[in-house]
Amino acid sequence: MTYSPETLIAPRFSRAAEGGVVSPNERALLRLIWRNPGMSRSEITPHIDLTQQSVYRIIDQLAERGIVALGAPKPGVGRGQPSPTLRLDGRHAYSCGISVNTDVIGICLMDLAGRILGEASVPLRESSMAEALDLVAEELAGLQRSNGLSPDSFFGIGFAIAGYHVGGTRYNAPLPLHEWSLIELGPLMAEFFGRPVWVHNGANTGTIAESMFGVGRYIKHFAYLSFNYGFGGGLISDGELLLGGNGNAGEFSGIYDAEESKRRPALQYLIERLNHNGVEVPSISYMRKYFDPNWPGVAEWVEEVTPAYNRMINAIRAVIDPQAIVFGGQVPSDLAQMLIAKTHIFDRPRYGVNRPGPKLIVSEISTDASAMGAAVTPFRAAFY
Asked: Tens-of-pLDDT digits for all 384 residues of the chain?
């Protein structure tokens, strides 16, 4: 039987008679409130295809369930009585995001309103899957205790892993994650944690985080470059994650053949170069924290990957035509700026006019974007 996290959602989160967590109209309202916290109830109707009467009725029902919080009225909006402001009520539910990278597992606890309640990480090197999951469970329990969170409000888990999708909840991960590869992660993690688990590629959850907490707040079409042990990414089209026919849209490394792949901007190769030049860099997490653009080997590596990098940037520009290309994943911001400085657009102006191109932007997410995006994934799936 096909795994479905929706069937594992606790009954307390479901609508009483109709089933499901929210209706399509409720979802549309919740998404609007998510994007515009503090919007008054009377301001909603022009932004949604519902009558004012329906809007008020639905909001009252959501408030009664504890999903929406009614705040102080906003004065001076329209005629009649001031209308209450609206926000998602974070107390209704919280989720956990787990992001498995080659060297570390990131953990992020988040409430329904998108507030980060706590973050932690578990080193992965030389740990088996079972050992690593036990450590994750310990960290999760600690975050729950420190926040005084009730198990009853624990909605679900977003689980992200580096690697490409091969079907169901199976992913083909890099060699350091071979034990996690080609197995059904969804039911395995759901049984271990006792909660519904939504599984994604780590680059996609990083893209989701950027969409909801970063540049996606003002840009609706962008490509996200995820620089990690390997190199991938994700795509946001009209504010929504684009998965593609096989769930692998944004696997930008796929444009390179076997030989070119060694010269793509994957951080595993930069670490090898640094270690060869006498700079002790034990992990990508370490490199991100302590990165120095003057380390011997950095400029040399940037020069080496520039041709492959530029071909990828121009392929994205030509095929996808995004408003922006975001440099994210685990890339240090100084390294991202070095790559941006090497960008060459293959443009051929016509009548002296160039084709419009995307802005190149360093990610606005300073924390673990993949874990952050994984944490919001259950809420995106069920609420907004």
From this structure: 799 999 999 999 999 777 789 999 999 999 999 999 999 998 999 999 999 999 999 999 999 999 999 999 876 555 667 789 999 999 999 999 999 998 899 999 999 999 999 999 999 988 999 999 999 999 999 999 999 999 999 999 999 999 999 999 999 999 999 999 999 999 999 999 999 999 999 999 999 999 999 999 999 999 999 999 999 999 999 999 999 999 999 999 999 999 999 999 999 999 999 999 999 999 898 999 999 999 999 999 999 999 999 999 999 999 999 999 999 999 999 999 999 999 999 988 999 999 999 999 999 898 899 999 999 999 999 999
Tokens encoding 295: 């380390």
Same fold, 92-207+370-382 and 216-364: yes
Residues 6+ apart with CB under 8 A from 110: 94, 95, 96, 97, 116, 117, 372, 375, 376, 379
Contact 40, 83 (CB under 8 A): yes
Cα–Cα distances in Å, from 62 out to 58, 65, 154?
6, 5, 19
Amino acid at 148: G
Domain coordinates in residue numbering, the chain: 19-88, 92-207+370-382, 216-364
Domain 92-207+370-382: state its class: alpha beta
Q: Are 144 and 109 in contact (CB under 8 A)?
A: yes
Tokens of 156: 């679900």
The CATH number fitting domain 216-364, selected from 2.60.120.230, 3.10.20.30, 3.30.420.40, 3.40.50.1000 = 3.30.420.40
Integer CA distances (angstroms), 166 to 205, 231, 284, 349, in order: 17, 17, 26, 41
All residues at 6 or more sequence positions from 126 whose CB lies less than 8 Å from its CB, including other chains: none
**Residue 304: enclosing H or E segment and its boundaries?**
helix 298-319
Q: Can you name the CATH fold of 19-88?
A: Arc Repressor Mutant, subunit A (1.10.10)
Exposed (0-12), middle (13-18) or buried (19+): which is 85, by Cβ within 10 Å?
buried
Q: Quick one: 11 exposed, middle or buried, by C-beta within 10 A (0-12, 13-18, 19+)?
A: exposed
